[in-house]
Amino acid sequence: MQPTTLTSENFSKIVENAKGIVLVDFWAPWCMPCRLVGPVIGRLAKSFEGRATVAKLNVDEHASIAARYHISGIPTVGIFRDGKLINQLVGVRPERAYRNALESALQSAAATATSAGNAKSGPVKRSVTVFSTPTCPWCARLKAYLRQHNIAFKDVDVSRDAAAAQQMVSRSGQTGVPQAWIDGQVVVGFDRKRVDILLGLKPGAA
User: Fold this and answer.
1) Is 34 a catalytic residue?
2) Could you confirm whether 136 is annotated as catalytic?
3) Are 41 and 101 in contact (CB under 8 A)?
4) 82, 108, 120, 140: which is deepest, by most CB within 10 A?
5) Predicted pLDDT at 22
């Protein structure tokens, strides 16, 4: 299976109004790094056939869509769940980073579906792990935000746990902290908007 070609005419149907996981490769023909990512996107389309939609959008031909999602550099790979952008990988990343991002999104979608099915049985339990260091101010802010909303989480100090640090980098492709795993989905930095979406918090909640 080849990646789906996206246009201004079909983007809403295939991405924004779709249920499930969609990977979008924002690229342009003149972009040399995009050519490195292209074969990887092709392999992902075959590997995830039936589980996720893998597609490509030429930003030169459809600049308005790229602007809508604030795509300022390419290649950028966006992961959408039920029509909403939940993750972005900017620049050339190892193939495992794209695979891990897709797997995480699929796991998160499955967890959300299970939680919705069990909503009447009690409060939704989230699986949240925060990778941090003691001297990182944004780590402290993220953890304080989670505590403020009574979100239980596992705190992993990657300055002391080398194995955990390696696992973190393997999944996200990035070394910076904080990083959070929320129901299998990776959030790099204190991205409050994405944290709110993944945890079902009201946007702009104090």
Assistant:
1) yes
2) no
3) no
4) 108
5) 96
34, 44, 66, 89: which is the annotated catalytic residue? Answer: 34
Say if residue 133's pLDDT is above 80. yes
pLDDT digits (tens, 9 = 90+) for 70-124: 998 999 999 999 999 988 899 999 999 999 989 988 887 776 655 555 545 555 6
Take residue 68 and report the two structure tokens written for it: 């809508």
* Active-site hit among 16, 18, 28, 31: 31
Domains, the chain, with CATH or none: 4-115 (3.40.30.10), 126-199 (3.40.30.10)
- Determine the 3-state secondary structure of 43 from DSSP: helix
Q: Distance between CA atoms of 111 and 140, rounded to whole angstroms?
A: 27
Can you tell me whether residue 60 is helix, strand or coil? coil
Q: Find all residues with CB under 8 Å of 197, minimum gap 6, and list them.
A: 84, 86
pTM over cut 0.70:
no
CB 125 within 8 A of CB 175: no
In this structure, how many other beta carbons lie within 10 angstroms of the beta carbon of residue 199? 19
Confirm if 172 and 121 have CB atoms less than 8 A apart.
no
